[in-house]
Recover the amino acids of this structure.
């Protein structure tokens, strides 16, 4: 099973459990549209969270690179300009 399949299966199991806990045993099986919409919502939310994490990591790395570049330029300034 691929990583995304594993996540989807996990979302499905949690959604079915949550629906049945809220509305009674077997409700999820009788309402597949509800299950599908909640699995889709959970999957979208997970994708957004993953994207946000990657975005934050990229910004942090850009900040670090910018800082290191400025520090290096300041160190080289006397050699370049005398």
């Amino acid at each position: 099973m691929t990583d995304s399949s594993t996540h989807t299966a996990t979302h499905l199991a949690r959604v079915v459990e949550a629906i049945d806990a809220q509305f009674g045993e077997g409700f999820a099986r009788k309402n597949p549209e509800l299950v599908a919409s909640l699995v889709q919502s959970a999957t979208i939310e997970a994708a957004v969270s993953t994207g946000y994490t990657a975005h934050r990591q990229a910004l942090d790395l850009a900040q670090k690179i910018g800082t290191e570049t400025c520090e290096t330029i300041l160190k080289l300034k006397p050699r370049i300009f005398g």
Notes: Helices lie at 3-23, 27-30, 32-81. Residues 3-81 form one domain.
